[in-house]
Amino acid sequence: MTEPKHILLIIGGGIAAYKSSELIRLIKKAGMTVRCVLTESGGQFVTPMTLAALSENEVHTTLWSLKDETEMGHIQLSREADLVVVCPATANLLAKMAGGIADDLATTLLLATDTQVLAVPAMNVRMWDHPATQRNIEQLGVDGLIVMPPDEGDMACGEFGPGRLPEPPAVMTEIMRHLGGGDGSSTLTGETELGPNPLEGQPAFAPDQHRPLHGKHVLITAGPTREPIDPVRYIANRSSGRQGFAIAAAAAEAGAQVTLVAGPVHLPTPAGVMRVDVETALEMEAAVHGALPADIAIMVAAVADWRADSRAEQKIKKQKGDALAPLELIENPDILAGLAQHEKRPGLLIGFAAETEKIEEHARAKLVKKACDWIVANDVSGDVMGGAENSVHIVTADGTEIWERLPKPEVARRLLRKIIEEI
């Protein structure tokens, strides 16, 4: 008989800590055991008694428990686990993890463990977007930790944006993915003991469900390109990369092998995604071709149409009273059209088109010109580029679907649902 998997759940201090109760229930329903470590600030939101009752195990709160050190050393706590899950992982806890600080039980366990660690961030959008947090996320990835991207949406503080803790069923899916999948021992659809599943009707591929893109390779481009003029100037656009990264995360959740070719953006790599960083259109084209073959290609990146014919080796100086010397531009390769003609053309080829007027008309013309299967046209006349929401037209040979303005992660989920139905 197979031994049950052991989860060590570290609960940080944030309002999202209340969701740890449902996560514990889901872990137990999946036939696993769970031990909880509650930080001092986490104890301001949930109580050890609640966690102990749900987990059916003692809850550990301090490094200085003589009883715990006699019966189970704090090092052993983490080493007996098959996976260490930090949920919620606050900005403060992520910073300590990235810096190797060990000043309480939770951070000492994290520094001492050789077990895989999955961190699930939750914090205010400004804290999430802060350069210090993004540096810490990047360092944790280098150190081999897995950081699950947060959701976007309304927050307890009244703001909107990335930083929401993903719903417990989505976290459970991620846990199962890093433990090698599930065998149907947990049911995450319909009613749970805590009421309706918050992801009911969403493409959250639960541990008991077949992951519909398993065995498929999905190639995605995201973000802008930068075309250098001289060492300090370049041609670029306002693409944030958020939509492409959200699609990559949704494809990985659906079980796909995902290659994400990313222009210069400051976004964390979605869990389970292989990321290739590029800067120019020529580099992006080479990376796309190098990633082939792929079953599905989704070209979301906003590739610069032109580049400077030659790059100045030194900064171009402005001369007072002189007219600006003309900048000679040449056309960049059309990566989407080139992929449509490639001998390794993906089975489903989807292009994105940023438009400010005549959205459907221009998108349908591009569908023919680029010889792709779908065009996802988004209206960028407002704050879409760099914003948290998107409004799209899905243009195919069979017609056009118009989607209302939605958060970009929801656009990604709907698009993945449509792709899965198509294939």
From TrEMBL:
Binds 1 FMN per subunit. Its EC number is 4.1.1.36, 6.3.2.5. Keywords: Decarboxylase, Flavoprotein, FMN, Ligase, Lyase, Magnesium, Metal-binding, Multifunctional enzyme. The active site is at C157. Its cofactor is Mg(2+); FMN. Gene3D superfamilies: CoaB-like, Flavin prenyltransferase-like. InterPro entries: CoaB-like_sf, CoaBC, DNA/pantothenate-metab_flavo_C, Flavin_trans-like, Flavoprotein. Residues 213-421 form the DNA/pantothenate metabolism flavoprotein C-terminal domain. The keyword Magnesium applies. In the C-terminal section; belongs to the PPC synthetase family. This is Coenzyme A biosynthesis bifunctional protein CoaBC.
